[in-house]
Amino acid sequence: IIADRPNITFVPGHIIPPLAGRFGATHWITTVHDVAFQKNPELYSHGERFYLRQAFSWALRYATRIIVPSEHVADAVRPQCRHTTSVVVIPHGVQDIFCELSPVQVDTVLKRYQLVPPYFLHVGRVVSKKNLDTLVEAYRLFTQAHPGVLVPLVFAGPVAPYWFTKLTSIIGVRPLGWVSDPDLVALLNGA
To answer: What whole-number distance in Å separates Cα of residue 173 and Cα of residue 154?
Structure first.
């Protein structure tokens, strides 16, 4: 980057190099996925908070364009930018594999996981910073409001040890751990 000085450099994951303004590209584009580290700093380690604050400040300082996945994130980022027009919303894309499946295809995967619709489905890492306490509390309230109706709350994604212990102690909650994309498609179709 220093030797070639490209016109545009895209940094998809957080951090623009520290000397970007002096030695880097003419234009920097980066992605800010969220600003949860500002709203809920207690969910991040000291090192994570430092890294994310630094990455965000460099993005604000050097990026010609900041891509965000939603208007919600844009609303949080724009007030902190020198030029609010530099924030552009580009929603996350979806791979072609994520499509409607036949009932037979869905049933085959659901049987493997011992699931029967209906069920609630959470997809993603199972860690505290994903605000899962709120989801678990909502599920508890749902089960209280509908006694005798068991609609499982299924977690598809890597589960932190603390959360595995917590989730497996709740009746109706099913942490599956990591699942392959083809299985995830079927789980989404079945939910």
So the answer is: 6
Tokens, residue 108: 């085959």
Average pLDDT of span 150-174: 92
Contact between 103 and 173 (Cβ < 8 Å) = no
The C-alpha atoms of residue 52 and residue 33 are separated, in whole angstroms, by 11
Q: Which residues contact 74 (CB under 8 A, 6 or more apart)?
A: 68, 87, 89
Q: For residue 126, what is the DSSP state?
A: B
- Position 190: which residue type? G
Residue 1 · residue 9 · CB < 8 Å: yes
Q: How far apart are the first and last CA of the chain?
A: 46
Global pTM reads 0.71
Q: How far apart are CA 27 and CA 17, in angstroms?
A: 13
For residue 132, pLDDT beyond 70 = yes
Per-residue pLDDT, 184? 95
Contact 119, 190 (CB under 8 A): yes
Residue type, 186: A
91: amino acid identity, one letter? P
